[in-house]
Amino acid sequence: SICKNLVELMGGNIEVISEENCGSTFFFVLELQKCQSITDSIRENLYIAQQNFDFSGRTLLLAEDNDFNAEFTKALLENVGFDVKLALNGKQAVYSFISNPSHTYDVILMDVRMPLMNGYEAAGCIRNSDKADAHSIPIIALTANAAGDDEKLTIQSGMNAYISKPFEKEMLYIMLKQLLDGTSVITDRSHEGMIPDHLDFPPGLLD
């Protein structure tokens, strides 16, 4: 039934108790996160509203293979002053980082599900490169699921933070501001085991 499918999509289960001549009782069980209090929510919204996001003079490398997502995210970032450079996959992101002078980019926003090389591998390659800013540049993971393996892999690959899609633009702006101001959200250096044995950039990769 529709109700059963909806409950199962949310990770729960639906059951029924029937009693002859009395009818049936349907119920379901879901494991949900405890929501924040109304006061905390209001305080958070006020904090967001008071922020003045201006990233003028900052350059961001956006790695995203979905054309619509790339253009949409690029527009959000350009609206607050970022100069955005696009990479269409993980290999292209790594190539763009290592082939440009150090400190060309101020921050990297990396989708984790991409062809040729995923975001975790790309972040690991960047961290293990010999560029002067390889270990200092903030890298944010764009994930479809911030629970379980995605969070673990984000940490292991050397990224600083993660944000789940779909995301609120204000939350992304706050995260970017914190990282560019020197506040680490997630840090870990145990990413060596995730690095490919070699990088092979075919001709025309950046076309």
Looking at the overall shape, the CATH architecture of the largest domain is: 3-Layer(aba) Sandwich
Number of helices: 7
Q: How large a portion of the residues is in β-strands, by DSSP E? A: 15-25%
What structural class do helix, strand and pairing data support? alpha/beta
Question: What do these coordinates show?
Answer:
By secondary structure, the protein is an alpha/beta fold. The chain folds into 2 domains: 32 residues, no CATH class; 142 residues, Response regulator (Rossmann fold), CATH 3.40.50. Helix content is 35%, strand content 18%. Helix 4 runs parallel beside helix 5. It is elongated. About 6% of the residues have low confidence.
Jot down its keywords.
about 210 residues, 2 domains, five-stranded parallel β-sheet, two-stranded antiparallel ribbon, 7 helices, 7 strands, about 35% helix, elongated
Strands, helices and their partners?
Layout: H1 2-9, E1 13-19, E2 23-29, H2 38-50, E3 59-63, H3 67-78, E4 83-87, H4 90-99, E5 107-111, H5 119-127, E6 139-143, H6 149-156, E7 161-164, H7 169-180
Parallel strand pairs: 3-4, 3-5, 5-6, 6-7
Antiparallel strand pairs: 1-2
Helix pairs in contact: 4-5
Q: What is shown here, in short?
A:
The chain has 207 residues and is of the alpha/beta class. The protein has helices spanning 2-9, 38-50, 67-78, 90-99, 119-127, 149-156, 169-180; strands at 13-19, 23-29, 59-63, 83-87, 107-111, 139-143, 161-164.
